[in-house]
Write a structure and sequence with these properties.
Length: about 140
């Protein structure tokens, strides 16, 4: 059985891939903290709505705003992930925009997001195994 055929597992796998890539991009920012004129980069935030629209197998699922009280839906046409420049709050004399403290906060956030996605993936897999197990067996 292919777990990627189950939308929940496919989305969680996408979230884990996104956070792993974000950690890689942020580590490059830290590695280039002393390079003149370097601008730090980051990934666009991961959203499950964009992941849904990106998957061909579940593209028929539509999210609609049917009441004024419902939350706005992010633009589904924007790419999932995607690299973007993310200037930090300071600019040094050499033109470098990297602030190590801000990059460490972002890396810590990415690590927490990854751990949460892995935990949810494991719990979902455990529930799937429990549902497939013969009672008393």
């Amino acid at each position: 059985m292919d777990l990627n055929a189950i939308p929940l597992f496919a989305m969680l796998k996408g979230k884990m891939s996104h956070t792993a890539e974000r950690q890689r991009v942020l580590s490059l920012n830290v590695a280039n903290a002393d390079v003149p004129n370097y601008a730090p980069r980051d990934l666009k935030p991961f959203t499950f709505e964009q992941q849904l629209h990106a998957q061909q197998s579940v593209s028929a699922v539509a999210v609609a705003r049917t009441s004024i009280g419902h939350m706005e839906i992010a633009d589904a046409q924007s790419p999932v992930g995607g690299d973007m420049k993310s200037p930090d709050s300071e600019l040094r004399l050499d033109g470098n925009h990297v602030v190590l403290e801000e990059q460490m906060v972002k890396m810590n956030q990415a690590q927490g997001d990854y751990a949460a996605a892995v935990s949810f993936y494991e719990q979902s897999l455990s529930m799937l195994k429990m549902a497939a197990t013969k009672p008393g067996g």
